[in-house]
Amino acid sequence: xxxxxxxKKRSSSVAKLLICVGLGxxxxxxxxxxxxxxxVPTFVARFANPNRVRGTVAAMAAFNLAGIVPVLGILYDxxxxxxxxxxxxxxxxxxxxxxxxxxxxxxxxxGVPLVVQGGYEMQARQYIKRLEKRRSRxxxxxxxxxxADAKILPANPDAxxxxxxxxx
Length: 168
What we know:
Layout: H1 4-27, H2 29-38, H3 40-47, H4 56-78, H5 82-89, H6 92-142, H7 145-152
Helix pairs in contact: 1-2, 2-4, 2-5, 3-4, 4-6
């Protein structure tokens, strides 16, 4: 359950964001246009974050902003006008630059854990194969009776012996 302090903190941060966007729309509209269009992956990550892992939205925002900053630099270089902002938004390479950062963040946040998990699974399968080879060599060396004895012995050495096994 969400307490009143969290609701108040969240509403105050939303109010601050809206004030910044409003002031930006009045004083620097081309920048706000580029930022608004370019930061869509961050907004999507904010509302579609299924497991609410801390830091995922911040990482997405940082990478997304890193992709947008060069586009803003080009906007300032070519003239800070609304027409130039829309001209940049009509260029596919600018979209690639803006969303490329967000794509890298998505891969790092959701793709890398899958790759690492796959690596651990392969490592575990190899370890199991190695143990099975050692087991088969041990059975070869000691005979099949060792398998039967291992099934009879209790897992807890302090537990009483099972029926049919001699006490030591």
